[in-house]
Amino acid sequence: MSSYLEIGSNGTLHVGEYHPAADSAMKFFKSLSIGERAKIEEAFASTALSGNRLSEICLDTMQRLKHGKPVSDRYLLGLCWVIQDINVEKVFEKETVEEGEYDPIIDFAMKYWRELPIDLKEKIEERVAADALYGDRVSQIIIGTMRRLRNGEPVSDKYLLGLMFMIVWARLEVKS
User: 139-164 b/e with 16+ CB inside 10 Å = b?
Assistant: First the structure.
């Protein structure tokens, strides 16, 4: 009859040895379509923004896999367990907001606007103002929206989201 230690010693991973289930986890991960991976990554990204540690770790693991960087078996197994545990279809079954219904994207956009550094807002406004002066209608609307927000005046959801798109675009341009 074997003792517990003898049984346990065969079931212990050696230093540097990966968990054999990692092969199955990788096979499972690769079986997900690009669309499924994108939806899962989107879910992790949105909850990671609120400080959800599990989402932060899973998001980083997915990004490492996407970019061909090494991932430990522990992280891969954890990621795949979480993916299997969540019902992806349930998470994304309601991707639209009905008229008059609370829209968390608008809250996110306002939070993003409030947290944007003032110097970056000024750089973006300078860039867009030049086009607005030459009659570019989109730039005129963006400048008007930025000024209304700065003055604490209400703006429509449509204009706010347009501004957020322009800010993301401008941030990419300012960085390059």
Answer: bbbbbebbebbeeeeebeeebbbbbb
